[in-house]
Amino acid sequence: MEQLKILVVDDEARMRKLVKDFLSVKGFTVVEASNGEEAVDIFFEQKDIVLIILDVMMPKMDGWETCKTIRKYSQVPIIMLTARTEERDELQGFDLGVDEYIAKPFSPKILVARVEAILRRSNAVNTDSVEIGGICIDKVAHQVTIDGKDIELSYKEFELLAYFLENQGIALSREKILNNVWNYDYFGDARTIDTHVKKLRSKMGEKGDYIRTIWGMGYKFEVT
């Protein structure tokens, strides 16, 4: 991972350290701010911040106001952290241009997975190849290897596996998978995903267990 810079904004030093530690392990550079005013100053001073993780409840300037101020000048990805989980708060965040909304307490690993997924979508990181848990995808060559051995996949199986890897640790509904892998031009039954997942798992051998079924919803790719 390139040394991409992320701004973590939270008035709790312990929370900032927790997030920083997990992001640093993944190779990110982390800068910290303890309130919204400080965050805005840092963001406009340092021109190379690629993503902001922003708490809602803070002194001086809360997360909503901070987001609103930054959105006047930049579309940098923003993940909002909050202890409040009411729907209207979530909708307010999306209205202000928040990219992800994560309620406290949260899993730091899930937060990191969402950071990586957002940065891939925003093209901040190179997505030509992805390697996780011994599974390597080369998008340019359209090749997959597992523990160094070539695996033959159909076009949709390849796209499906790539989508899973790029969203590691994130629960994905069947509808979301259809929209992103099959796009909006597919009007068939969502069960086609189950068929493709079954074939994909069998071709992946033991690594197929990384694709976990979430009953009643969809799937999650998670390296255990």
UniProtKB/TrEMBL annotation:
Keyword line: DNA-binding, Phosphoprotein, Transcription, Transcription regulation, Two-component regulatory system
This protein's record includes keyword Protein biosynthesis: no
GO molecular function, a single term: phosphorelay response regulator activity
A Pfam family this chain is assigned to: Trans_reg_C
Any one of the GO BP annotations: regulation of DNA-templated transcription
Annotated GO CC locations: cytosol; protein-DNA complex
Signal peptide: none
Function: May play the central regulatory role in sporulation. It may be an element of the effector pathway responsible for the activation of sporulation genes in response to nutritional stress. Spo0A may act in concert with spo0H (a sigma factor) to control the expression of some genes that are critical to the sporulation process.
PANTHER family xref list: ALKALINE PHOSPHATASE SYNTHESIS TRANSCRIPTIONAL REGULATORY PROTEIN PHOP, REGULATOR OF RPOS
Protein name: Stage 0 sporulation protein A homolog
The organism of origin for this protein: Lacrimispora xylanisolvens
